[in-house]
Amino acid sequence: MSDCLFCKIRDGEIPGDLVYEGDSVLAFNDINPQAPTHVLIIPREHIATLNDLEPKHSDVVGEMHLVAQQIARERDHAEDGYRTVFNCNAAAGQTVFHIHLHLLGGRNLGWPPG
Ligand code: 5GP
Ligand code: ZN
């Protein structure tokens, strides 16, 4: 999608601090990190919100979680713990409308979230 920030990062039109590049999934550091590890994991395919997921997306959504697991392990968060979050639409604070799995780790994370 031409005016989507994360499609532009995918296409190299704007810089992204990439930490993983796969056939169907990319991961890059969040520009405004909320924890020592704050990585965004996205599908290469533009999908605006979780509401737009279809059964055909189940493989890529699963892959996004496996990438989160891998990065968390690489950064030694697996034992201590970490969090993955999808925000969907305004009440959850979604600001970029290309789905992204937040991976947060490296500090104690409060619950419930704000
Ligand atoms: P949301 O609020 O939609 O769940 O999360 C959007 C995330 O994208 C935020 O954590 C925000 O800091 C991050 N973000 C916004 N613009 C950019 C950007 O240009 N580059 C990167 N790497 N992250 C961004
Ligand atoms: Zn997009």
Based on the model shown, name its key terms.
globular, 2 helices, binds guanosine-5'-monophosphate, 114 residues, alpha+beta, HIT family, subunit A, binds zinc ion, 5-stranded antiparallel β-sheet
Could you explain the architecture of this structure?
20% of the residues lie in helices and 22% in strands. It is α+β, with helices and mostly antiparallel strands. The chain has a single domain, classed as HIT-like (HIT family, subunit A, 2-Layer Sandwich), CATH 3.30.428. The chain has a 5-stranded antiparallel β-sheet, covered by helices on one side. The chain is globular and about 40 Å long. Guanosine-5'-monophosphate is lined by residues 5, 16, 28, 30-32, 40, 87, 93-96.
Summarize this, please?
The chain is 20% helix and 22% strand. It has helices spanning 5-10, 58-74; strands at 18-21, 25-29, 37-43, 82-85, 101-105.
Write the layout of secondary structure elements.
Blueprint: H1 5-10, E1 18-21, E2 25-29, E3 37-43, H2 58-74, E4 82-85, E5 101-105
Antiparallel strand pairs: 1-2, 2-3, 3-5, 4-5
**Cα separation of the termini:** 31 Å
Write the element-wise H/E pattern from the N-terminal end onward.
HEEEHEE
Mean pLDDT metric: 97
**Sheet with most strands:** 5 strands, antiparallel
Helical region count? 2
- Tell me the CATH architecture: 2-Layer Sandwich
CATH topology: HIT family, subunit A
Q: Measured on Cα atoms, how large is the radius of gyration?
A: 14 Å
Strand content: 15-25%
Please tell me the total number of domains.
Answer: 1
> Helicity, in percent?
10-25%
The ligands found in this model are: guanosine-5'-monophosphate, zinc ion
Shape descriptor? globular
User: What is the number of beta strands?
Assistant: 5
Structural class: alpha+beta
CATH superfamily: HIT-like
Widest β-sheet, arrangement of strands: 1-2-3-5-4
CATH class: Alpha Beta
Low-confidence segments, given as residue ranges, are none
